[in-house]
Specification:
The protein is an alpha+beta fold and about 110 residues long. The protein has a domain of about 35 residues. The protein contains 4 helices and 6 strands; from the N terminus they run αββββαββαα. The chain has a 6-stranded antiparallel sheet, with helices on one face. β3 and β4 form a beta hairpin.
Length: about 110
């Protein structure tokens, strides 16, 4: 599957209280004002929230799909190569998981 930035955008914006902004020369997505996704590298990858322990396991297990940007080593973020995603379900799961980590409790409890 070759995932595009537009497909990421559609999934992200389908989630409650999500807005898109353009910051740091790239599209960024926030839920209730909290950042949960960016589309760097000319929209060929996405950066999403991911607990550090989980992130490190993902990178070890699938280094062609996941990696850590040097400036994000100390933060709970992981990069995902869009062209390496298996299908739309995987895209939706990754984006939704990142959204849940940033969303206010009242939004995640109502799902």
């Amino acid at each position: 599957m070759t995932t595009t930035g537009d497909e990421v955008r559609a999934v992200a914006l389908s989630l409650a209280r999500t807005t898109e902004q353009f910051e740091w020369q790239m599209p960024t997505f926030r839920v209730a004002g909290k950042l949960f996704l960016t589309l760097p590298e000319n929209e060929t990858s996405m950066a999403v929230r991911c607990p550090i322990a989980d992130r490190d396991e993902l990178v070890q297990a699938e280094p062609d799909k996941f990696w850590i940007a040097p400036h994000e080593v100390m933060n709970a973020w992981v990069r995902v190569r869009l062209a390496a995603l298996d299908d739309v379900e995987e895209l939706e799961a990754i984006v939704t998981d990142s959204w849940r980590q940033a969303a206010p409790r009242e939004l995640t409890e109502s799902e």
